[in-house]
Design brief:
Blueprint lengths: L16 H28 L12 H18 L6 H17 L12 H20 L6 H18 L2 H24 L5 H34 L36 H18 L1 H19 L5 H10 L3 H31 L21 E3 L6 E3 L5
Antiparallel strand pairs: 1-2
Helix pairs in contact: 1-2, 2-3, 2-4, 2-11, 3-4, 4-11, 5-7, 6-7, 8-11, 9-10
């Protein structure tokens, strides 16, 4: 882990916010460049074919260009989420078109281009979902979490451990691949990424707790990363104003409140999930009807085209829709959490501005609707 601990004998050198951004972005930029080169080589390698027992070629396209979009955003070269999606979307389509040179011996199809685009748009949806929400108290909490995340991934050790985890999973998958029957190989190809994500989640949990504890002691500035004294009101390096509670993690909502905040979006999500299948069943009946009746002859061609879509294409569309649905649920939950942490600034019930409300013992009531609120430290 990258340490930010102070020393009275050898104090950490001062740095500017721009220098700090370069420090935390550099590993992501290296990762993006290496990944972009590897992806371009893979998509343009002459006559490259995937094993028939592996994952769908379309699924591979979706995941590959989704990862490219995420890494491009993390480089910090593009500050706009929309522009990031536009650049990645253009890249994905140019990548497919550039494979049409006869010397490469590659097939260029609109199905691959569609899979590329779905991967970009899916990650773009999650970039929108995870953007900062709420007012000052909640945004301070999110800024603290973003700083911890940046510190974790500014460390070379973090990346080496992730690479080691990925290589270990790849070796285990390759060995298993040789020992099992072809029928079980698709399952292995699904379980391997799931296992890798599980290991990364465990490592992230451990790194997060350790890094957060260290940074609380160092009272780092969010703008430039320089450690400061707890009593400081502005950063000694970049003069950014410091809040006394910026490294105080606010208490989480009660389980009852959290359950209510999450249950409703989950219920809505579970209700929405069957909707496409019910709609699809209705469309199938409609397709059959249009094929059998002469009322809408122009619909027959459209119907045949829809029903002839390859199964891999249907799978990636289902996967993208599911990812968008989950992103929508997460967005609703994050907005509800923001209202909880912002309750001393904006009324959770009517939205009234509470910044001028009277507060007694870290609590008060909305002057408009009477809704009680608490002043949450660290938020």
């Amino acid at each position: 882990m990258m340490t930010t601990a102070r020393s009275t004998d050898t104090p950490e050198p001062l740095r500017t916010p721009a220098a700090w951004r370069r420090i935390v972005r550099r590993p992501w930029r290296i990762a993006f460049i290496l990944y972009a080169i590897a992806l371009t080589l893979a998509t343009h390698w002459p006559k490259l074919t995937l094993p028939p027992t592996g994952p769908s070629d379309k699924t591979t396209h979706l995941i590959s260009f989704g990862m490219l979009t995420f890494l491009l955003w993390r480089t910090g070269w593009v500050r706009s989420r929309i522009l990031t999606v536009i650049i990645a979307l253009s890249w994905s389509q140019l990548d497919e078109l550039s494979q049409s040179f006869e010397i490469l011996g590659r097939d260029v199809t609109w199905l691959d281009a569609l899979a590329n685009a779905l991967g970009v748009l899916l990650v773009g949806t999650w970039l929108w979902t995870l953007r900062p929400v709420g007012m000052a108290p909640n945004r301070l909490r999110l800024a603290r979490h973003a700083f911890i995340f940046d510190v974790i991934f500014a460390s070379v050790r973090t990346w080496m451990m992730l690479i080691a985890a990925g290589v270990s999973i790849a070796i285990a998958t390759a060995i298993t691949w040789k020992l099992i029957d072809d029928g079980a190989k698709p399952t292995v190809m699904l379980l391997s990424p799931a296992l890798l994500l599980f290991i990364i989640a465990l490592l992230m949990h451990r790194w997060w707790k350790r890094t957060a504890a260290q940074l609380v002691r160092d009272y780092n500035c969010f703008a430039c990363g320089t450690p400061n004294d707890v009593a400081a009101t502005q950063c000694r390096s970049c003069a950014t104003p410091l809040r006394a509670d910026q490294w105080t993690e606010p208490p989480p909502p009660t389980r009852r409140w959290f359950g209510r905040a999450i249950c409703m979006p989950m219920v809505i999500g579970l209700a929405i999930i069957p909707a496409p299948f019910l709609a699809l069943a209705g469309l199938v009946k409609l397709y059959e009807w249009t094929l059998d009746t002469p009322v809408f002859p122009s619909m027959r061609g459209v119907t045949r085209w829809i029903m002839s879509a390859p199964e891999p294409v249907q799978n990636i569309i289902d996967l993208a829709l599911l990812g968008v649905l989950i992103a929508g649920i997460v967005r609703i939950v994050r907005r509800r959490l923001a209202r909880h942490y912002d309750q001393s600034v904006r009324c959770r019930s009517c939205g009234h501005d509470l910044r001028g409300a009277s507060i007694d013992n870290n609590a008060g009531h909305c002057a408009e609707c009477g809704e009680p609120f608490d002043v949450i430290a660290g938020g």
